[in-house]
Design a protein that fits this description.
Layout (H helix, E strand, L loop, with lengths): L1 E6 L3 H16 L3 E2 L8 E6 L4 H21 L4 E6 H6 L2 H5 L5 E3 L7 H9 L30 E5 L1 E2 L10 H5 L3 E2 L2 H13 L4 E5 L7 E3 L9 E3 H12 L6 E5 L8 H9 L6 E3 L7 H6 L6 H14 L4 E8 L6 H14 L3 E6 L17 H24 L5 E9 L6 E6 L4 E5 L8 E5 L2 E3 L2 E3 L3 E3 L5
Parallel strand pairs: 1-2, 1-3, 3-4, 4-5, 6-9, 9-12, 13-14, 14-15, 18-21
Antiparallel strand pairs: 7-8, 10-11, 16-17, 16-19, 17-18, 19-22, 20-21
Helix pairs in contact: 7-8, 8-9, 12-13
Bound molecules: iron/sulfur cluster.
Length: 454
C-alpha cells in the first residue's frame, strides 16, 4: 500500500503530517513519489488565507480527474484546517473526496487506512455520528531522516486576533500532558534527533493542570515545562531546543530567565510583533502595546546579548494611516530583526476584521509592504555582515543541493552556513568561522565536529 501527502500552511501542519506519515510507515505502507499511483492521497490543508484554500480546491479537482481516469482510487482524504472549517460540505463541493478529517478527529486515520487496505475506501467509519472527537496529540512527529523535529506541546488559540481564522478552525487551547512530551523527546533522541522545536499556535500559553514529573498535582506553566524539557535533554543526544510561536503578551520574565539559564535553548527567538502602532495593535486585538513589546526586546537582549530576533509584520490593516506605517518602520529600526515574515492584510470571512471600515486599497497595501520589505532587507544584510569573522556552532543538516562537496548547516541564531564537507558530518554539531556571505547564507572555509560529538 502506498501514500502521498501534500502539506500546506504552518509548522503545526508539517508536524501533524509527520505524525500521520509515521502511522502509515508503522503499518507497513510506503511513501509514493506522487499522487498518480498512490493508494491514498492526503491533503493537509490551511485556511489562513483564501488563496491557500483556493489552491487546495484546484488540487482536489485534479485528483477528481485522476480518479475518473484510473477508475479506482486513490482514496482522497482532506485533513487540517479546511477540513475542520468546512466539514462534510467539502464532499458536496468535491464528491471525489472520500474522507474529511478535521484537526480534532485525526484519531480516525488508522480506520481510514484499514478501509483502504480492505478496498472499502469511502465507506462510513465506525464513529457515532453525533460525537465530536477531542483533540489527541500523536505520540511522535518524527520526520524520517531528519535531525530536527517538531514536538507539539499545545494546540488551538484563545486569543482571537481580529484578522486571524485560527481560533475558529483550531479551537480553544489544549495543552499536552508533560509526561507524553518528555516521552516523545526521549524517543526522538533514540532515533538520532539532535534539535527539537516545541510547537504551539500560542506556545508560551502552555498550561497543564494535574500530575507532572516532580509533582503529584498542580499547575505547570510554560517556564516550568521548559525546565523539565531542558533537564530531559541534558547530557543526551538532543542538544538544542527552540520554541514557536511565542506570543509577546505571554512572554514572562521567568521564561526569559529559564532560556538564559540553560545553554540548550538556542539564541534565537521568533516574537511576532505584527505592527508598530498602538492604534493598529489595539484594532488587531493583540493585547500588548508597542512600548511593552520594545520592553520585552530589551529584557530578552539584556538576559541573552547574543540572541537573534525574528518576527511577523502585517501591513495595510483597515484604518492604517501613513503615520501608523512609520511607527512600524521605526519599531523595526529600533529592534533590528534578523528576518521577518511580512505580508499585507487580506480580509478573511468569519474574522472580526472582515467587516472593519477603512480598508486600504491594494496598490497602497503593496507599496507599504514594499517599504517594510526593503527596510528588513537592509537590516538582515547589516546584521549578517556584522557577524563576519565570528566563530559559530552549527548543526549540519544535509548536503548542499548545488554542490555535493558542501554541507549546509544552521547556527543556533538561525543563520544558514555552507561549508566544505561530506555526508559524514550530517547530523553533527560543528564549529566554524563565518568567513563570507553569499546572499543571506554564510560561507565557512573549514568545519570541525564539536568535541564529544564525533
Ligand atoms: S495568537 Fe492571534 S495570530 Fe496567533 S493563532 Fe492566535 S489568534 Fe491567530
Amino acid at each position: 500500500m502506498t501514500y502521498f501527502f501534500e502539506t500546506y500552511g504552518c509548522q503545526m501542519n508539517s508536524a501533524e503530517s509527520a505524525a500521520l506519515d509515521l502511522v502509515c510507515r508503522e503499518r507497513g505502507w510506503a511513501a509514493a513519489p506522487d499522487g498518480e499511483g498512490a493508494d491514498l492521497v492526503l491533503l493537509n490543508t490551511c485556511s489562513v488565507r483564501r488563496t491557500a484554500e483556493a489552491r487546495v480546491m484546484g488540487r482536489l479537482a485534479q485528483y477528481a480527474a485522476l480518479k475518473k481516469k484510473r477508475q479506482a482510487g486513490p482514496c482522497l482524504v482532506v485533513a487540517g484546517c479546511m477540513a475542520e472549517r468546512l466539514g462534510e460540505t467539502l464532499k458536496k463541493s468535491c464528491p471525489a473526496v472520500d474522507y474529511v478529517m478535521g484537526t480534532s478527529a485525526r484519531s480516525v486515520f488508522p480506520l481510514i487506512l484499514e478501509a483502504v487496505e480492505e478496498s472499502r475506501a469511502g465507506e462510513g467509519l465506525p464513529l457515532p455520528a453525533d460525537e465530536k472527537p477531542a483533540f489527541a496529540f500523536s505520540s511522535s512527529h518524527l520526520e524520517e531522516g531528519r535531525f530536527r523535529s517538531f514536538v507539539p506541546i499545545m494546540h488551538g488559540c484563545n486569543n482571537f486576533c481580529s484578522y486571524c481564522i485560527v481560533p475558529y478552525v483550531r479551537g480553544p487551547e489544549i495543552s499536552r500532558d508533560p509526561a507524553s512530551i518528555l516521552a516523545e523527546i526521549r524517543f526522538l533522541g533514540r532515533r538520532g534527533v539532535r534539535e527539537i522545536t516545541l510547537l504551539g499556535q500560542n506556545v508560551n500559553s502552555y498550561r497543564w493542570e494535574g500530575p507532572f514529573p516532580g509533582a503529584s498535582s498542580g499547575v505547570l506553566g510554560f517556564p516550568g515545562l521548559l525546565r523539565l524539557v531542558a533537564r530531559e535533554a541534558e547530557g543526551g543526544p538532543i542538544r538544542w531546543i527552540r520554541f514557536l510561536s511565542a506570543n509577546p503578551k505571554d512572554l514572562s520574565p521567568e521564561t526569559v530567565a529559564v532560556m538564559a539559564e540553560h545553554p540548550a535553548f538556542c539564541r534565537h527567538l521568533h516574537l511576532p510583533v505584527q505592527h508598530g502602532s498602538n492604534a493598529i495593535l489595539a484594532a488587531m486585538n493583540r493585547r500588548y502595546t508597542r512600548e511593552q513589546y520594545l520592553g520585552l526586546v530589551r529584557a530578552v537582549r539584556s538576559a541573552m546579548p547574543d540572541i537573534s530576533l525574528s518576527t511577523d509584520i502585517l501591513v495595510g490593516f483597515p484604518g492604517e494611516t501613513a503615520g501608523d506605517l512609520e511607527e512600524t518602520l521605526s519599531l523595526m529600526a529600533e529592534t533590528k530583526f534578523l528576518y521577518a515574515y511580512m505580508y499585507h492584510f487580506n480580509p478573511r470571512e468569519g474574522t472580526a476584521a472582515y467587516g472593519l471600515p477603512g480598508r486600504i486599497g491594494e496598490g497602497l497595501k503593496r507599496e507599504r509592504l514594499g517599504r517594510v520589505i526593503a527596510l528588513q532587507k537592509e537590516h538582515t544584510r547589516e546584521l549578517l555582515a556584522s557577524r563576519l569573522g565570528r566563530r559559530a556552532k552549527a548543526l549540519v543538516e544535509g548536503i548542499s543541493r548545488k554542490n555535493a562537496d558542501e554541507i549546509i548547516a544552521r547556527t543556533e541564531r538561525d543563520e544558514m552556513v555552507v561549508a566544505p564537507g561530506t555526508v559524514s558530518l550530517v547530523g553533527h554539531f560543528a564549529e566554524l568561522t563565518l568567513s563570507g556571505l553569499r546572499g543571506n547564507t554564510f560561507r565557512a572555509k573549514e568545519i570541525h565536529v564539536c568535541p564529544g560529538d564525533s
